[in-house]
TrEMBL record:
The lineage of its organism: Bacteria, Pseudomonadati, Bacteroidota, Chitinophagia, Chitinophagales. This is Type IX secretion system protein PorQ. The gene is porQ. It comes from the Bacteria.
Length: 355
């Protein structure tokens, strides 16, 4: 009965209005990778097997009891001088058999000038976005997990502000004996309570994703693949002057080809994670949509690729990642995690780390 109820909520978005890409939605900052682990994975992964509490923002059912007590802080220098950070804390309640997490994501766009219509400087202002998330996850039977994340969203750009509420619902199937894990998640289902402008007609950046990961049996490598925007097949940018299959002739817009294979692969994000010894972790990812839309055709370079390294020991985790958007444009992401359960017994409500 619980699984049936969860599936109903997962597929409710199909009955909603279409959600478009290309800057047509509010709160686009929710799609930024909150941690170096997620950045290194290519920005999307709903089935990764690991012990990083930030993965609960990719799929709430990835939150597990062993993440109880984990405190994580991440910082990133984004393009254009934008700075953003993320902090998360996990906990586990054995009596309730439920894992919990709370996290905060903040984006600051720096100081900007306020001018009138003639260009006279009237002062300065600092646009900001932030989201506060609460996550809960439980196990069902032996191999299933299900989870829910609720997000309170606040955004302010000088005199324009907006608040909203969104939710992520996810499930995972885990076969630890064979090293497989599969996940399904519906992200950013919700609404705006207050809009930037009364005539605004934007939606939230909804996404429906499915993915799978495999831990190889004889090599310490985990492979994963994620398919995003399952609800919308054509996710190419809709500008007719920028699309390869569109030709403008005598004022008419003509479609010259389907480009179905390229569009299909734009839904995929591929990643690999290699554990070197006990303490070193190397992660790489490839995002085909990012490469196709952001790279320069004649100079693609490393666009769409991402790379990360992590030092993971019993009482400390330190991770760094870099993601390339264009050949010479990317951003750096760094973060650390401290298992407070190991240091001070914090994070397991009654002191017993059950599963």
């Amino acid at each position: 009965m619980k699984i049936r109820f969860l599936l109903i909520w997962l597929f409710l978005p199909f009955a909603a209005a279409a959600q478009l890409l290309g800057g047509r939605s509010s709160y686009a900052f929710l799609e930024l990778p909150p941690s170096p682990q997620i950045t290194a994975l290519g920005g999307a992964n709903v089935a990764i097997q690991g012990n990083d509490v930030s993965t609960a923002l990719l799929n709430p059912s990835l939150l597990r009891p062993e993440m109880g007590g984990q405190l994580q802080v991440n910082m990133a220098g984004y393009n254009g001088g934008i700075k953003y950070g993320h902090a998360a804390f996990g906990a586990y309640a054995p009596k309730m058999q439920t894992s919990f997490a709370a996290s905060l994501q903040y984006v600051g766009y720096g100081q900007m000038q306020h001018t009138d219509v003639t260009g006279n400087v009237m002062g300065t202002f600092r646009p900001v976005d932030f989201s506060f998330q609460l996550t809960a996850s439980r196990r069902y039977l032996e191999k299933w997990y299900y989870g829910l994340t609720v997000k309170y969203i606040r955004s302010r750009y000088f005199d324009y502000s907006s608040t909203g509420l969104a939710a992520d619902v996810g499930i995972t199937f885990t076969d630890s004996a064979r090293g497989w894990q599969a996940g399904l998640v519906a992200m950013n289902m919700g609404t705006q309570f207050t809009k930037y402008a009364s005539d605004e007609n934007a939606t939230l950046p909804f996404d429906l994703q499915v993915g799978i990961s495999k831990q190889l049996a004889h090599v310490p490598i985990q492979l994963s693949a994620t398919i995003h925007h399952l609800h919308q097949f054509d996710i190419r940018y809709s500008g007719p002057d920028l699309r390869n299959d569109i030709r403008i002739e005598n004022g008419d817009t003509l479609r010259t080809g389907g480009y179905g294979i390229d569009n299909l692969f734009r839904h995929f994000v591929l990643a690999a994670q290699w554990n070197i010894g006990k303490y070193l972790e190397i992660t790489g990812g490839y995002n085909h949509l990012r490469r196709q839309e952001l790279s320069l055709p004649e100079r693609r370079g490393m666009s769409g690729f991402s790379l990360g390294v992590g030092v993971v020991v019993k009482k400390f985790q330190l991770r760094y990642a870099r993601s390339w958007y264009q050949r010479a444009v990317g951003f750096h992401h760094i973060g650390c995690s401290i298992p407070l359960q190991q240091w001070a017994g914090i994070g397991i409500f009654d002191g017993r780390a059950g599963r």
